[in-house]
Design goal:
The complex is a heterodimer of chains A (282) and B (317).
Chain A (H helix, E strand, L loop, with lengths): L6 H19 L4 H6 L1 H11 L16 E4 L5 H10 L41 H14 L6 E6 L6 H12 L5 E7 L2 E2 L2 E2 H5 L4 H7 L3 E6 L3 H17 L4 E6 L22 H8 L10
Parallel strand pairs in A: 1-2, 2-3, 3-7, 6-7
Antiparallel strand pairs in A: 4-5
Helix pairs in contact in A: 1-3, 1-4, 1-10, 3-4, 3-9, 5-6
Chain B lengths: L8 E3 H15 L3 E5 L9 H6 L4 E3 L4 H13 L3 E7 L8 H9 L6 E5 L17 H6 L5 E3 L4 H13 L4 E4 L4 E3 L14 E4 L4 E5 L3 H14 L4 E5 L2 E3 L3 H11 L2 E8 L4 H12 L4 E6 L9 H7 L4 H13 L2
Parallel strand pairs in B: 2-3, 2-4, 4-5, 5-7, 6-7, 10-11, 10-13, 13-14
Antiparallel strand pairs in B: 1-8, 6-12, 9-11
Helix pairs in contact in B: 1-6, 3-4, 7-11, 8-9
The chains are: A alpha/beta (282), B alpha/beta (317).
């Protein structure tokens, strides 16, 4: 698919999926899903080595992706379906009774691509670190990726995991922060400011990169740099993706108000008119 | 009653340590994580024998739970160790989301459980942990009674696919069960057959119950004594058939009444075969500093209290 379509075209379809899923369910979280769309699309359609059709929960021989910020499930489900883990038609079942596409990712319903449940925040970095340890024990050279939110980084467990990953030299763990500066109650700065995240992660002993999270060339380039570093370095990698909450839909951009709110029918149409249908809607 | 001999006092946490080491020798997938209590929880022998399979987490129990869940994905069998309060109440949401709900094969090993932690006081003496853990769907809850049984339980945990909560303690207590006894998760052990009353005991209270039964027999009271080491899944058949036979039940445990073994038994019998019941457990109180023996007596967790509870239960028949 990525050979036929540019990553930007795929990202546009993913954004349409996000809007249609949240509007269809009349609940869900569009803001962070849209801010993380570009680099998650790059991961699933270019960067990661994975086997969507033959996915197995042990992750052996494949790169693994963990969504710590489980509320970005519309984005997660869209890239999983669009990259072949399951039929895109199933996206219509998001948040419906009996669906495998639970409000927040679950393994109880056996959705391919989901390794552990997430949604209660701050836990995914620890789980990903454990998975990276497992790969080391298995002499499996593939990478473990994990996406955390910037607001989520107010959870103390993120920083516990930060120390653990350094202590155990998990150089094939690549964490990504969606640094959109917004959370439910307002801007991150107004709620509990995180300060200089780059200095913080450096101080915790991580190899840290900062990247424009909406520039596809910059995104591909930063992943190349992260991989190159991992060949010789012994630190885990944090990529801070500078993003805009709600990116791609003008009235959702840059505000916390669309963190967890569904658009009305009219707003859905308005949003979709700004997002090109490239791969065909589900 | 059948004779039970104390083969020498030993702490159940050392039984866990020995069992973990044995499990590690038997299965290369067994790994262990600890949050800065390696010696206290007796994981040091495993750490020395298998340094590449032991992971220090520091004082960061929440992270330890998550890391264990991640390790389990590739087929590892992680045992995580700390004090009981710090791997249950402190990390309840982590255990709930990435262990129980995610069905990961993590063994939560909880030392220093209950009031017999002693001098450290109530901050460290958790008596709510059985309740917290048994409420989680799919969680197996085990509370063995002595060194030998704890060692066997630690080995058996590796053979069960899914989350396990294994609870044990700090003090040296009589080691009286057979070291070659087969440990089957979910299977009650009949320690004595009787007709007047059933005593169902778990953990450190089992030896107290043995003492109580010996004393009661001298008074002509015939007591059926059941050791429940697996509180969940509960051996329903053993509980129901004994309650039908004797018509009265006493449950004894080092835990609050709320959420404990006694409540599981009461719930089962209320639905199947209601009989008068008494509870030897702590009633809605926190502990305090003291020696284990002082505290067991003061909080009503000794053989004398079991004897009184038995007589009360029989009088209510």
């Amino acid at each position: 698919m990525s050979d036929q379509f540019t990553l930007e075209q795929i990202a546009s379809q993913v954004r349409r999926d996000i809007i249609r899923m949240v509007a269809g369910a009349q609940s869900g979280h569009p803001g962070g899903s849209l801010s993380s769309t570009d680099f998650v699309t790059a991961l699933f359609f270019r960067v990661m080595k994975h086997s969507p059709k033959h996915w197995s929960r042990d992750g052996k021989g494949n790169d693994m992706f963990f969504l710590s910020a489980g509320h970005m499930s519309p984005l997660f489900y869209s890239v999983l379906a669009r990259s072949g883990y399951f039929d895109v038609k199933e996206l219509a079942e998001f948040r419906k009774f009996g669906s495998r596409l639970q409000g927040h990712p679950s393994v109880e319903h056996h959705l391919p691509g989901v390794y552990v449940a997430s949604g209660s925040l701050g836990q995914g970095l620890s789980v990903a670190a454990g998975a990276a340890l497992g790969k080391r024990l298995d002499k499996d050279e593939r990478f473990v990726y994990v996406l955390v939110g910037d607001g989520e980084s107010e959870e103390g467990q993120i920083w516990e995991a930060a120390m653990f990953a350094v202590r155990h030299k998990l150089n094939r763990l690549i964490a990504i922060t969606d640094w959109n500066g917004q959370q439910i109650d307002g801007t991150v700065d107004s709620v509990i400011a995180l300060g200089d995240l780059e200095s913080k992660w450096n101080a915790f002993g991580w190899k840290t990169f900062v990247c424009d999270g909406h520039d596809m060339n910059a995104i591909l380039s930063v992943f190349d740099k992260a991989h190159a570093y991992s060949e010789t370095g012994d630190k885990p990698v944090m990529i801070l993706m500078k993003t805009v909450m709600g990116k791609g839909v003008d009235f959702m951009e840059g505000t916390h108000k669309w963190h967890g709110k569904a658009p009305s029918k009219e707003q859905e149409q308005q949003a979709l008119s700004q997002l090109q249908e490239t791969l065909g809607d589900y | 009653m059948k004779e039970y001999t104390n083969k020498g006092n030993k702490d159940t946490r050392s039984g866990f340590g020995a069992g973990l080491l044995e499990a590690g020798k038997m299965n290369p997938d067994v790994v262990a994580l600890c949050a800065d209590l390696t010696g206290s929880v007796k994981m040091d022998a495993f750490a020395a024998e298998f340094p590449d399979r032991f992971f220090q987490c520091g004082i960061a129990e929440a992270d330890m739970v998550g890391a264990a869940a991640g390790l389990s994905l590739s087929g590892k069998i992680p045992y995580i160790g700390s004090f009981a309060g710090f791997v249950t109440g402190r990390v309840y949401d982590q255990v709930r989301q990435v262990v129980a709900y995610s069905g990961t094969n993590v063994k939560i090993c909880a030392s220093h459980a209950g009031i017999t932690l002693g001098e450290d006081g109530a901050t460290h003496q958790i008596m709510e942990d059985i309740g917290l853990m048994k409420m989680l769907p799919g969680m197996v809850v085990i509370n063995p009674c002595d060194y030998n049984q704890t060692k066997a339980a630690a080995i058996a945990a590796a053979g069960h696919v899914g989350p396990v909560y294994l609870r044990f303690g700090r003090p040296s207590v009589p080691n009286f069960t057979d070291e070659n006894a087969r440990f089957e998760i979910g299977k009650a052990i009949m320690l004595n057959e009787g007709t007047d009353v059933t005593v169902i005991a778990t953990g450190h209270l089992v030896w107290e119950a043995v003492q109580a039964v010996q004393s009661l027999e001298k008074e002509g009271i015939s007591v059926e004594l059941i050791n429940i080491h697996t509180i969940k899944p509960l051996d329903s058949d053993a509980v129901i058939s004994s309650a039908r036979k004797t018509g009265a039940v006493v449950c004894a445990e080092e835990h609050l009444i709320a959420g404990g073994l006694g409540e599981s038994v009461a719930s089962l019998l209320a639905r199947t075969n209601p009989v008068p019941m008494e509870f030897v457990a702590v009633d809605d109180k926190f502990g305090q500093s003291g020696t284990p023996a002082e505290l067991m007596k003061a909080y009503g967790l000794d053989s004398e209290h079991i004897i009184n509870a038995v007589k009360k239960a029989i009088s209510r028949k």
